[in-house]
Amino acid sequence: MANNLKIIPLGGFDKIGMNMTVIEFGDSIIVIDCGTSFSPNNMPGIDTFIPDTSYLIENADRVKGIVLTHGHEDHIGAVPYVLLNINVPIYGTPLTIALVEKKLKDRGIKKFRTKVIRTGNTIVLGTFKVEFIRANHSIPDAAMLAIHTPIGIVFHTGDFKIDLTPIMGDVLDLHRVSTIGSKGVLVLLSDSTNALREGTSPSEEDVNYQLDILFNRYKDNRLIIATFASNMDRVQQIIYLAEKYNKKVILEGEVMLSIFSASEKLGYLNIPGDVLIDMADMNRYEDKDIIFLTTGNHGEPINCLMDITSGNHPRIHIQKNDVILFSSIAIQGSEREFSKMLNSLEEQGAKIVFQDIHATGHACASELLLMYTLLKPKYLIPAHGEFRFRRAAARIGASSGIPNENIPLIKNGDILEINDDYCKVTGNIPLKEICIDGNLVDDMDKNLIEERRILSESGIVIAEVCFDSKSGRLVATPKITTKGFIGASNNDSIIKILQDALNAELSRLITQNVRDERLEAQLRSALSKCVYDNTKQIPIVVVLVTNVVL
Ligand SMILES: [Zn+2]
After folding, report:
1. How far is the CA of 172 from the centre of ligand 1 (A)?
2. Domain spans, the chain
3. Chain-centre distance of CA 148, in angstroms?
4. Ligand 1 geometric centre to CA of 448 (Å)
């Protein structure tokens, strides 16, 4: 068994986000990516989730490092939390490491080991050699990894697409991919996000063509452009077009500014002349010469555009004839807030324009087929995404000639073991859901989330009962208070009904000499029933019984 290669996804195989995969052989473990996932809307107060790294903590002496494929949150966001438990070196391309270092410094973490690896280079981590290969994606410096193991190559695509005409950087290194394919690939872990989309993803060049038309059409309007914070290709295009149409660009939004400044420092962006201006200088220009470039898509903070729309932004206010251009759009889960914002923009006289082409960062079906054909893996493991996406990638793999039995659809926590004879799931590590609540990291407590949900939906009813501990008599009249309980705000008499129910039950219990914890439980049960019978609401009911010495 010691000579089996193990692949264990700790995240990223059931839903989008929280990507983390363990690759293990003998005494060496490496971890690919370390991301967060966003909290679903039905979990009040919970910001993000991170992978359960108990397995890594138990095997910390064998973990040689964390290798990052690119700088998106769902691939690097959990690094500051994971490093608190296992302080291992972090490897990634220049922009990825710059973003990770900023994250670590922002959280006050000083002791860390990061190492910049350029694409085309290889590092040795224990028994593994990890080669970084240039990819195209929606953030600069994305890499694929060829992991050379003692029994063959594991190829990890990270997030990728094939853009033959990118605005920034070069085309994915197809030459190297095909060379590795000709050597023979044992396992391919492949991005599946867009496996259900036929054909190929549009190039940034196609987007550029369409953006140019829109810039020309709205050359006399002030533009507010919302795009993905990390899509520097798009930012670069907008800056070039601003120069062409004699406009000035003002960048707005913390995430965008941080990725922009890291990319600029690395020399990835070309900012001609005085195209970029400070917000403080905007009054020196006519409105039609100004472009605000901000983030406005799901999965990234849309606060900035929301603030502008609602009039809460300190300097930018919507004016009649403003054109709000959404460049690339993917709204999932926040449709209601988004459509509210669109309505408000139109009410204020702005014009909303959606750029039609959605230049995704993920390979569509034909690009996946090309990769599978070039790499010819013995085993294909569709990764990154919900089951239906991975199943679609499996079908594409089968159409490229990989036998169905060699395409295991594994889930988070599965231990996939591979040797010369087989590739099969031999066990499963139970994974907890670990959530980030403000600054706190904890196992997700389902009861706590349920309590928060009930509190947010139905509020709380509190009954206070106070006894004299010597005489056993009531010290004051029992009191009912409520917070966020709609029954009380709609109808004052409900408080009286609850008060009467509390008094009646209390007298009954005192008569029966019930004074232990049953008193609290029975009062709670009587009050809950009374609330439901009268309002059909199920708020949280709390009974506080205190004994005082007078
Ligand atoms: Zn990504």
Report:
1. 15
2. 5-199+360-443, 204-353, 446-548
3. 30
4. 32
Average pLDDT over residues 132-158: 96
Instruction: Give 486-550 as a DSSP string.
Output: HHHHH-THHHHHHHHHHHHHHHHHHHTT--SHHHHHHHHHHHHHHHHHHH----EEEEEEEEE--
In the block, tokens 């790294």 appear at 53
Centre of ligand 1 to C-alpha 118, Å, is 18
User: Selecting from 3.40.50.1360, 3.40.630.30, 3.40.50.150, 3.40.50.10710, what CATH number does the domain 204-353 have?
Assistant: 3.40.50.10710
Say how many Å lie between the CA of residue 238 and the centre of ligand 1: 21
Neighbours of 372 (CB within 10 A): 23
List the structure tokens of 460. Answer: 């709380």
- Reported confidence tier of residue 119, pLDDT bands at 50, 70, 90: very high
Residue 491 has a pLDDT of 62
Ligand 1 midpoint to CA 259 (Å): 14
CA of 266 from ligand 1 middle (Å) equals: 19
Query: Per the confidence metrics, is the pTM higher than 0.85?
Result: no
> Alpha-carbon torsion 132, 99, 160, 406, what sign?
positive
In CATH terms, 5-199+360-443 corresponds, of 3.40.50.11290, 3.40.50.11540, 3.60.15.10, 3.55.50.30, to 3.60.15.10
- Cα 17 to averaged position of ligand 1 atoms, centre (Å): 9
DSSP SS3 for 291: strand
CATH class of 446-548: alpha beta
